[in-house]
Amino acid sequence: MAEPLTRKKTVFLIRLAVIVITSYFIILSPSTGKQWGNYGYIFIAAYLLTNLIVAYIPDRYFYDDKIFYGFILSDSILLPAGIYVSGYIGSELYLMFFFIISLTTMSSNFGYLMINTLFYSFVYGWLLYQRGLLTGPDAISYLIQIPFIIIIAVFYGFLITTRLKDKDIRIIEARERYEKIVQATDVLMCIVDYDGKFLFANQKLVKFYGYQDENNLLGLTISKLYNEDEAETEKTLNYVRSVYKNNETVHYESYDKNHGKWFAHTLSPIRDPSTSDVFEVCIISKDITDIMEKEQKLNETVELLRRTRDQLIQKDKMAALGRMASSIAHEIRNPLEIIYMGVDDLENNLPPDNQQIQDSIEKIIKAADRADNIIKNVLSFARQSSYKITRIPLYPLLNNVLALAEKTIQKNGIIVQRNYGNDSLEVAGDNNMLEQVFLNLVNNAIDAMKESKEKKLTVRAYKQLVTDIGYKTGPLPDDFFSIGHEMIVVEISDTGKGIAKEDMTKIFEPFFTTKPANEGTGLGLSIAHMIMDRLIGTIDVESTENKGTTFFVKLQPKIKTTNTAGV
Predict the structure, then answer these.
(1) Cα gap 543→525, rounded to integer Å
(2) Which contiguous run of DSSP H or E holds residue 426?
(3) Which residues cross the membrane (predicted)?
């Protein structure tokens, strides 16, 4: 099978045909006198020389715009010069030549151009015939004008249509290249109109939303992607219309509830080149779920570090305050003993029938008892009490605590829900200390629900695998709980008034209380926190105002030793 002609060979052969026809045209022209004869031969030789130069130009240059338009320019100069040398400058041929040039520049289809050229060549030949120029001795010189016109049309038509084809190929290649880029990108991309109808969607978006191909999506509205979620659809449409209105790019983030993913959206205007008005909007959606999850984890880590810092500061404050409180408590107890002795002496020596005096003595005794109770709590807080960690059955301990608080629970009309079974679940701790911690939390829960409509106390106990790093939880040697190990968790929840957000960091501080002046010393939770440190456990809290509070007591399932010096 013969190889197809290259562009270089095609140009060479067409130019050669033009040169041959032009040469015959000049030689046989009846208008060429002796004064133009030599110039005609020089012209033919120069034209042939240009085609010889073409033969030696590498083929790749014929795809260069400058070379191609150079041919057009040079031949546009040489061909009128040939007509001038032939003596037809004032004839209809000259006009026919420029008419054919105009016709080729306006034609985008070579076939249609040749049909037009043949038609006008026939008309031109008929005019020559009507004038009697196609008969007689000079007929051949006029007859050759018709193939001249045709070959000129072929030559210029080839140049023009070839350039148009080159541009079409480049446009197609550019479109295919951008199509590949759009389809290969890792983002969801689509183009919508003012009403949110899809005009284009890349395969990533089509497959993500479960469609077979782009045609199934085109013509549908954005609401189809959000499963008729009116709020999300309206929000997206508002952003699209904002781009139309302001002619500016818009950025926003949203959460896709159906797929559980976060997206960062960029809405860019597609403008009409002539008016710069927006006629379409391109939406690019990038999956940022991983970034959002990492950001959330970072925020949680920062919060954990803050809580750990606060707890460490609290621990140091408690140790220092404990030492100071012990000294102060001893100093206060001595004058308090004198007050007790004085009140006892007054009670024995004053007449018992004076009710006013007896009421005063009773108030003094109550105040002294309260002061003595505070001193005992302070000493309990400050003193390194002796204790022994053993394996303790948890459920009997919790039942005993609820039995101790039963009267107060019934008095306040509180419903108790026990979410733990009868299976044996043991913890490492001191029975008296854990009883004190749980009883304190139960009493606090009862106090918190005094004004609540719903009064429900829930006690849960369960095993839990340690998976997250937290206060005294992690890979360090001093951590109480190690990742991958088990812990025992006791939850004590109430439906009370909750704890104010600004108070959450203070509740374990000594002497901090939100109770009325005569109802609490503010040492209960501080002592509970101290006890949990000694038992190699932790105590945490979660609370929502006007909904309730939950304390999490985390205990060791087995006896464990750790570096707790100075606790």
Answers:
(1) 15
(2) strand 426-429
(3) 12-28, 40-57, 77-103, 110-127, 139-160
